[in-house]
Design brief:
Number of domains: 2
Helix content: 25-40%
Order of helices and strands: EHHEHEHEEEEEEEHHHHEEHEEH
Strand content: 5-15%
Bound molecules: pyridoxal-5'-phosphate
Mean pLDDT: 97
Number of strands: 14
CATH architecture of the largest domain: 3-Layer(aba) Sandwich
Low-confidence stretches: none
Radius of gyration: 21 Å
Structural class: alpha/beta
Shape: globular
Largest sheet: 7 strands, mixed
CATH class of the largest domain: Alpha Beta
CATH superfamily of the largest domain: Type I PLP-dependent aspartate aminotransferase-like (Major domain)
């Protein structure tokens, strides 16, 4: 029996999508073979891949002057690929560090080029994100890198800035959770295993004029423009993940698109934060206006009870609530595919656990 999966990633996938995949697994579309066994060069596979791209563009309302790429290597590979392509443009890139992932992006990027870290909340345990109007972005920064939603700390920016420099965002955990104005960005990247589908796939949305300026001395696999020329099939793409992602996009569209999910995600998150805020048994340290609507970390006032919370929650069909090992405590990741019912079951358990041990 399937249980509620609060994993941060690879995360839960809509059951409707899994059932459809199951029904097509042995033989896809009368082709006599599985989609996993099919060349990416066939007309049939190309049509699946192209349609997934088209649906993704429609869902996010991506303008024509942007390219969408389906790549590999995860968000982590983008930590290198972005500075390799764009750090030569002007002055040093500027990085904003609000959690583990942007810290890692800064550390990895620093191996490639000199980076100006213009903000870090590490000394305050990553419990908030700044406002862009309070940041000093050097005029000549080749690009500005930030993460709208830090998956591990549950810290989100409460605004999308308008800046003069190219804006680059790691949206691995926030993509498709709410509508965004793509026009404000030069590059958006996201690994798939949070809110898009199975791991192995990385989606990049890139402004075409920015892509053209990428470093031409790099090998093809490291160049966005080469991937674009080959329709993201420069080499064999992660065909199965791409196919499942396409089904998730159809599912998102069918349910009402990103405004529907923004409303649902906000509702799920506010219910969960309410339980945390109404008790002094559960604690979330993040500044209220920077609370994530998809990753909700919390600790118990009595830390000794945490292993018991994890054990009993799992026994009650609530899986993968353990916080990241660097942070400890608990974390509920409630992306699009987590229904309200799952969150309500978690809330019931939290109330029950508190009345038992609080
Ligand atoms: C999960 C995640 C990553 C790492 O993704 P990989 O696919 O493992 O490289 C990077 N950034 C954010 C914000 C994430 O949530």
């Amino acid at each position: 029996m399937r249980k509620w999966n609060f994993s941060p990633g690879p995360a839960t996938i809509p059951e409707d999508v899994l059932l459809e995949v199951q029904s097509e697994l042995l033989e896809f579309n009368n082709a006599g073979i599985s989609i996993m066994e099919m060349s990416h060069r066939t007309e049939l596979y190309s049509s699946i891949a192209f349609e997934a791209k088209k649906d993704f563009i429609e869902i996010l309302n991506i303008p024509d002057n942007y390219e969408v790429l389906f790549l590999q290597g995860g968000a982590t590979h983008q930590f290198s690929m972005i500075p390799m392509n764009f750090s030569h443009l002007q002055g040093k890139p500027a990085y904003i560090t609000t959690g583990t992932w942007t810290k890692r992006a800064f550390e990895e990027g620093s191996k490639i080029t000199e980076i100006d870290q213009i903000f870090s909340s590490e000394n305050e345990n990553f419990i908030y994100a700044p406002h862009f109007k309070d940041l000093k972005i050097p005029e000549d920064a080749s690009y500005v890198h930030y993460c709208p939603n830090e998956t591990i700390h549950g810290v989100a920016f409460d605004h999308i800035p308008t800046i003069n420099n190219p804006l680059v965002a790691d949206m691995s955990s926030s993509i498709l959770s709410e509508p965004i104005d793509v026009n404000k960005f030069s590059l958006i990247y996201a690994s798939a295993q949070k809110n898009i589908g199975p791991s192995g796939l990385t989606v990049v949305i890139i402004k075409k004029s920015f892509m053209k300026q990428g470093n031409k001395a790099l090998t093809n696999l490291l160049r966005y423009s080469e991937h674009s020329k080959q329709n993201s099939m420069l080499n064999t793409p992660p065909t199965f993940s791409w196919y499942v992602a396409g089904k998730v996009f159809k599912w998102v569209k069918k349910l009402g698109g990103l405004s529907y999910f923004k409303e649902l995600n906000t509702l799920k998150a506010s219910k969960l934060y309410q339980v945390i805020d109404n008790s002094d048994f559960y604690i979330n340290p993040v500044h209220i206006n920077n609370r994530s609507i998809v990753n909700i970390p919390f600790v118990l006032k009595d830390k000794k009870l945490e292993p018991l919370f994890l054990k009993e929650s799992a026994e009650n069909g609530l899986l993968n609530l353990k916080g990241h090992f660097t942070v400890g405590g608990m974390r509920a990741s409630i992306y699009n595919a987590m229904p309200l019912d799952g969150v309500e079951d978690l809330i019931k358990f939290m109330d029950h656990f508190e009345s038992k041990y609080g």
